[in-house]
Amino acid sequence: MTPSQLQQDVVSLLKKADNVLVLPSSPIDGDCLGSSLALYLALKKMGKNLQHYALRFTWSSLSEKYLEIFNDITLVKEG
């Protein structure tokens, strides 16, 4: 499968960037969390300076327990 022009452009921008901010959508769900963490970890391996933010109020207490393993995520309250 050949990447689309948009996909190629996104990859090019990410390769050029030194600093990247990862913002999952809100309200957050499992797919969003998984894909944003995968992107974060891939970019971290590329040596990028990263920030990853997620809104605390959208997460259940169970989800927050799992997030303890990802110390680099900043949880913020809306408003």
Secondary-structure blueprint:
Blueprint: H1 5-16, E1 19-22, H2 30-45, E2 49-55, H3 61-67, E3 73-76
Helix content: 40-55%
Distance between the termini: 42 Å
Report the oligomer.
Answer: single chain
- On the 0 to 100 scale, the average pLDDT is 76
Order of helices and strands: HEHEHE
Structural class: alpha/beta
* Major beta sheet, strand line-up: 1-2-3
* Beta strand count: 3
Q: How large a portion of the residues is in β-strands, by DSSP E? A: 15-25%
Large-scale geometry: globular
Keyphrases for this structure?
alpha/beta; about 20% strand; about 80 residues; 3 strands; globular; three-stranded parallel sheet
Provide a descriptive summary of the structure in words.
The protein has helices at residues 5-16, 30-45, 61-67, and strands at 19-22, 49-55, 73-76. It has 79 residues and is of the alpha/beta class.
Give a concise summary.
With 79 residues, the chain is α/β, with parallel strands linked by helices. The protein has helices spanning 5-16, 30-45, 61-67; strands spanning 19-22, 49-55, 73-76.
